[in-house]
């Protein structure tokens, strides 16, 4: 039955393709059609024309126009013998241009070639022929969405097609501002954000164009505890962000257990970030979508990069195998096993505070017998090639690993036990793209994503051994077909299949307890999306619908998507966005000390009981003003997420051990103002949001969201030249909610069943957060390579920030302890990058 469903979906995709893509026909057939319609007769040698094919043109025009269009595509000429007889000859000498896209080496149609004599255009094969050498000195090539190319006529050789590659250029109709916060970060007309790391200039506190760090400068996005693995968007948890790497989902985003991005910044080629109004081809990601592609443009020659800072060393090699194929190898490795730096020590203190690692330093009976061994690495491999002018293929592989090893020793007996915590991911994807015609394209992608978190906690006091595992296997197939109906209208169809399996194990030897849980879910999805551009491209509409079928529940879920923008005047746009999404995965916390209290979240899969399918409904209206180097944006939004579980929200109060299902809703406003003045860029953004939970089974049922930041502001100033880059920024947000205790009676039932006597959940806030960051660099330029040195500083003024606060009962005496997690101290990080 499943195979039948799959075949039906594929046939639905192919029917429009088969009906549209038949416009490249043999020249002989086309000449026969002209003979019948125009009452003329062609005379030719079969060997001259039998192998030639042509893109058909409208025959309801003058014969000479038809002949000119044919002669542009093929090396042939037409000679009238009389009023009805025409001789078709193959040219013995001709001049030719073949126009390709630089990124994909695909033939480009509708490229206009301008000379002094006339303007002609390429058809489906991307080729133009000249009977005689053009008389002008240069030829200019134009195509919408590509940079203008100019070539010397003297470079044309008889009977040889000169290859010309056009560079893709962002369509100004699709982009609102190039240089949003910094060069390389762009604001699109649909209010999505695009990051091009290769063009990236500088942001304060960063040594590289890291996407997970960069997105935190965007209004509405924040990490309340400074961890990459805990990014909150409009009140959502980190697991509600969908991270895609070359089409495959990532279940691990951080090294150093959340302090450093697991994605090598040097390999990302294009990154798109959506908070709302995303394409129907995305699902999950209730809070945001971060789509990362590492596919690069074809290389003229091999390129290499070396990088090092106070935490790691990295290298990348882009190897040009041929004109159509290239190989990329990249990797990063932490050198903490060689020596520790001040940067490493600050990160270490931050991540391990109030965990079992830090508890060993204060325990009277236990200690660490050796230094903690913390290591991480990642590796990337990519191969891409063009089989022909219209077909490209790529395969990508990535490995991510974190490993923590330490030995626990009993001070009294000198007994020792090894403990470890490992976190690793392996991702593979392959993609085949094919242009069937200038208006029809197909794309197919298959992927596999594997994630594993495993910890072994061995106690030297009682010989108890606890082994915990969280494992995810996600694989799938994505098919897509795009149809350009006209310059104003585009239509897309798609089918996606994926299967997710998640395993959670808890095994204890004393007493012998073994808990193993495994769940699997298959999802089929059909997608349809329509894009329109009307009123001279002033009104742009993207309307999509996705239908998800979850076989385990025998249930359909529908997801409409809308993104509409209207240019009231050339410098002022209004944007309306709305979407509904569903999510079947979540990260939950069973116990705060799981996995040593370091990475305590486990991936789980939706079921019919305690973990339902979550649903997002979101609507937003925004405006963009862009004129005279000024940019002003303002957004109002309402977001509602239903069927969340309390275990996914990291409660550390009276809800910590409860299994509740509820909702949260967030409404707010986001603003940004930016001014570009020659080499200076100044910007300020501000976010207000009000986010509340609603758990009907708890009293009070409504209270503030754990990840609410009522007021959040950031400002930055940068100065950039070819060699010098400087950036300074400041960040401020109100303290996150916390639950106070009854100071008069902090412990309830102290004699029988002692517990902390909490007041209403999240009825107080911790202190405000503020931080100033800086980055400066200088670039040395030589003929064959360049080198950049720089310094990045987090928390320039060493501000004392509390990132979390909670209460717990002391193990030794019956009293309540207030625990505070602190932010990073003054943290410098020098870096060196060499390209050659």
Automatic annotation (TrEMBL):
<keyword id="KW-0675">Receptor</keyword>
<keyword id="KW-0998">Cell outer membrane</keyword>
<feature type="domain" description="TonB-dependent receptor plug">
    <location>
        <begin position="210"/>
        <end position="285"/>
    </location>
</feature>
<dbReference type="InterPro" id="IPR012910">
    <property type="entry name" value="Plug_dom"/>
</dbReference>
<dbReference type="InterPro" id="IPR036942">
    <property type="entry name" value="Beta-barrel_TonB_sf"/>
</dbReference>
<keyword id="KW-0472">Membrane</keyword>
<dbReference type="Pfam" id="PF07715">
    <property type="entry name" value="Plug"/>
</dbReference>
<dbReference type="InterPro" id="IPR037066">
    <property type="entry name" value="Plug_dom_sf"/>
</dbReference>
<protein>
    <submittedName>
        <fullName>TonB-dependent receptor</fullName>
    </submittedName>
</protein>
<dbReference type="GO" id="GO:0009279">
    <property type="term" value="C:cell outer membrane"/>
</dbReference>
């Amino acid at each position: 039955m499943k195979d039948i469903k799959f075949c039906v979906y594929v046939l639905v995709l192919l029917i429009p393709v088969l009906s549209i893509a038949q416009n490249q026909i043999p020249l002989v057939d086309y000449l026969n059609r002209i003979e019948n319609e125009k009452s003329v007769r062609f005379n030719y040698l079969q060997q001259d024309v039998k192998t030639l094919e042509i893109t058909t043109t409208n025959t309801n025009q003058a014969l000479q126009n038809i002949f000119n269009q044919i002669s542009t595509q093929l090396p042939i000429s037409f000679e009238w013998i009389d009023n009805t007889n025409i001789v078709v000859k193959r040219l013995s000498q001709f001049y030719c241009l073949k126009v390709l896209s630089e990124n994909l080496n695909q033939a480009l149609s509708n490229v206009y070639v301008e000379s002094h004599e006339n303007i002609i255009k390429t058809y489906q094969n991307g080729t133009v022929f000249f009977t005689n050498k053009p008389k002008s000195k240069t030829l200019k090539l134009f195509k919408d969405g590509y940079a203008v190319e100019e070539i010397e006529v003297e470079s044309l050789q008889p009977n040889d097609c000169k290859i010309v590659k056009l560079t893709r250029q962002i369509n100004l109709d699709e982009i609102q501002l190039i240089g949003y916060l910094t060069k390389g970060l762009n604001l699109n007309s649909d209010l999505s954000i695009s990051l091009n790391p290769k063009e990236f200039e500088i942001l304060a506190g960063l040594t590289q164009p890291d996407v997970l760090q960069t997105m935190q400068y965007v209004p509405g996005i924040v990490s309340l505890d400074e961890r990459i693995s805990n990014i909150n968007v409009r009140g959502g948890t980190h697991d509600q962000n969908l991270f895609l790497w070359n089409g495959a989902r990532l279940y691990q985003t951080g090294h150093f257990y959340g302090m450093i991005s697991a994605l090598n910044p040097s390999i990302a080629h294009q990154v798109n970030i959506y908070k709302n109004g995303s394409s129907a081809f995305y699902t999950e990601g209730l809070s945001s979508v971060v789509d990362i592609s590492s596919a690069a443009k074809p290389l003229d020659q091999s390129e290499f990069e070396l990088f090092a800072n106070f935490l790691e060393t990295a290298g990348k090699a882009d190897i040009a195998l041929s004109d159509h194929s290239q190989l990329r190898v990249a990797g990063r490795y932490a050198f903490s096993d060689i020596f520790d730096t001040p940067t490493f020590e600050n990160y270490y203190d931050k991540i391990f505070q109030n965990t079992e690692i830090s508890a060993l330093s204060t325990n009277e009976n236990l200690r660490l017998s050796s230094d903690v061994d913390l290591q991480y690495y990642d590796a990337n491999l990519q191969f891409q090639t063009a089989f022909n002018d219209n077909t490209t293929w790529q395969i990508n592989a990535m490995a991510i690993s974190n490993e923590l090893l330490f030995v626990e020793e009993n001070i009294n007996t000198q007994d020792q036990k090894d403990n470890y915590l490992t976190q690793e991911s392996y991702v593979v994807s392959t993609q085949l793209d094919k242009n069937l015609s200038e208006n029809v394209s197909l794309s197919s992608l298959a992927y596999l994503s594997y994630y594993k978190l495993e910890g072994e906690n061995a106690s030297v006091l009682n010989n108890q051994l606890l082994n915990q595992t969280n494992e995810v296997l996600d694989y799938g197939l994505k098919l897509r077909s795009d149809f350009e109906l006209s310059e104003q209208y585009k239509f897309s169809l798609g089918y996606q299949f994926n299967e997710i399996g998640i395993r959670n194990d808890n095994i204890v030897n004393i007493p012998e307890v073994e808990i193993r849980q495994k769940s699997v879910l298959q999802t089929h999805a059909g997608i349809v999306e329509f894009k329109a551009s009307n009123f001279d491209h002033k009104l742009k509409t993207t309307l999509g619908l996705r239908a998800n079928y979850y076989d385990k529940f025998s249930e359909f879920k529908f997801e409409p998507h809308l993104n509409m923008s209207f240019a009231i005047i050339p410098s002022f746009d209004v944007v309306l966005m709305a979407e509904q999404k569903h999510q079947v995965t979540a990260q939950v916390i069973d116990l705060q000390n799981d996995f040593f209290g370091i990475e305590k979240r486990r991936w789980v899969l939706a079921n019919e009981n305690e973990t339902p399918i979550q649903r997002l409904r979101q609507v937003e209206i925004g405006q963009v003003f862009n004129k005279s180097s000024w940019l002003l944006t303002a957004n109002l939004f309402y977001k509602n997420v239903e069927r969340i579980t309390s275990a996914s929200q990291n409660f550390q109060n009276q809800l910590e051990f409860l299994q509740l299902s509820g909702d949260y809703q967030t409404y707010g406003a986001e603003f940004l103002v930016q001014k570009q003045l020659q080499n200076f860029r100044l910007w300020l953004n501000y976010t207000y949001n009000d986010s509340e939970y609603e758990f009907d089974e708890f009293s009070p049922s409504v209270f503030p969201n754990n990840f609410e930041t009522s007021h959040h502001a950031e400002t930055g100033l940068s100065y950039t030249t070819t060699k010098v880059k400087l950036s300074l920024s400041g960040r401020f947000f109100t303290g996150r909610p916390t639950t106070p205790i009854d100071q008069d009676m902090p412990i309830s039932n102290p004699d029988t069943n002692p517990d902390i006597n909490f007041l209403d959940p999240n009825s107080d806030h911790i202190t405000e957060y503020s931080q100033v960051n800086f980055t400066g660099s200088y670039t040395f330029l030589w003929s064959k390579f360049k080198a950049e040195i720089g310094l990045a500083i987090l928390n320039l003024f060493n501000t004392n920030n509390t990132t979390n606060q909670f209460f717990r009962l002391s193990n030794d005496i019956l009293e309540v302890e207030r625990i505070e997690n602190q932010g990073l101290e003054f943290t410098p990080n020098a870096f060196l990058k060499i390209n050659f």
